[in-house]
Amino acid sequence: MVSLKAFLEKKHDIRIPDEDATPDTFDTVNSIVQIVEKHRS
Predict the structure, then answer these.
(1) Is the pLDDT score of 30 beyond 90?
(2) Which domain holds residue 27?
(3) Which pTM was predicted?
């Protein structure tokens, strides 16, 4: 999960706060898309 978070932050130039980085956040492709979109704006 930590490496996926780091990858997404680097790839999309975003910061995902630790409180948003829960197991459920990275459980499905849809939830990953949602967290990236949330922090891109």
Answers:
(1) yes
(2) 2-40
(3) 0.85
